Backbone:
């Protein structure tokens, strides 16, 4: 990953670390329940949670598996997640590593489970990250990736890309289901199932979580309010007296595995 | 904070993917000799944060 960009990611998530750790937005939800249903975690599983952020996914899965290694590019985020975990108590099988998803510091075949939730849109090179996911998974290992789905309609997709970058300049891009499918196949993982799960966002909480200042939130609010009707319909934008209250985007959940047998 | 052997088993050099071992306050790649620091007990396994252990 480009060093300059990496530093921008660290700066962005370093300043927002506490907000990410404390938010209830990531600590549960239909996507995690669905991930658990597909991954079928067992007490024998060693899990890697890539780009763990506030550690919510790792904490969710920890009681179901032997160990979770939670990695992230931002040390500030890992420290906050570690503090949160020790204050919360009850979970002692999560360990933290500062790592780049595109250059993972783990031996080949280290994990039987892998998760990466709401993060690949920050990766400059998703195919490279997927090759790393494939490498660190054991043969037959199971993987779930969850990320925001890029809308099919080009105008809605453009609105989506712009609003995400207004909120967080380290947002690179989301992908369509077809693009994900191709990238998964290219990385020699086997795609088994995809599921689209709607996610409701409280606009103010969502905008402020990334550290936006008041005038930036207002600018983003105006961008939402001025969007065409089809954007309002797609994102189910709810507003009152010119203020956006909520919107709903679509999360794509991808369940894939590494092949049991591979050609040498 | 010292890292025990079990934890090091699930750790490799992010650059060459070889085994790593603790040397004082850093984690050193046994192949390329790059040294990775620890911050608050968390290994910083980033290629651009590393130094050659021979210079330490």
Residues:
């Amino acid at each position: 990953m480009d060093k300059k960009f990496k530093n921008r990611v660290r700066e962005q998530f370093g300043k927002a670390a506490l907000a990410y750790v404390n938010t209830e937005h990531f600590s549960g939800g239909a996507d995690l329940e669905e991930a658990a249903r597909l991954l079928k975690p067992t007490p024998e599983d060693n899990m890697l949670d890539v780009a763990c952020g506030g550690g919510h996914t790792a904490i969710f899965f920890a009681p179901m598996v032997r160990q979770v290694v939670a990695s992230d590019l931002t040390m500030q985020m890992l420290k906050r997640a570690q503090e949160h975990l020790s204050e919360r108590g009850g979970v002692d099988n999560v360990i933290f590593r500062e790592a780049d998803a595109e250059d993972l510091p783990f031996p080949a075949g280290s994990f039987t489970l892998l998760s990466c939730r709401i993060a690949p849109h920050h990766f400059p090179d998703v195919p490279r990250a997927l090759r790393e996911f494939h490498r660190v998974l054991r043969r037959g290992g199971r993987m779930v990736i969850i990320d925001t789905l890029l809308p099919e309609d080009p105008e809605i997709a453009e609105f989506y890309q712009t609003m995400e970058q207004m909120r967080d300049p380290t947002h690179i891009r989301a992908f369509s289901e077809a693009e994900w499918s191709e990238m998964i196949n290219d990385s020699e993982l086997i795609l088994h199932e995809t599921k689209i799960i709607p996610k409701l966002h409280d606009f103010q909480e969502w905008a402020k979580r990334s550290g936006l200042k008041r005038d930036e939130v207002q600018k983003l609010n105006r961008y939402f309010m001025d969007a065409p009707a089809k954007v309002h319909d797609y994102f189910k934008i709810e507003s009152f007296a010119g203020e956006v209250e909520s919107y709903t985007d679509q999360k794509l959940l991808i369940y894939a595995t590494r092949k049991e047998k591979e050609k040498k | 904070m010292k890292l025990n052997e079990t934890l090091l088993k699930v750790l490799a050099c992010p650059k060459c993917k070889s085994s790593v071992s603790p040397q004082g306050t850093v984690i050193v790649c046994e192949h390329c000799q790059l040294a990775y620091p620890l911050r608050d007990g968390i290994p910083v396994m980033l290629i651009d944060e590393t130094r050659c252990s021979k210079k330490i």
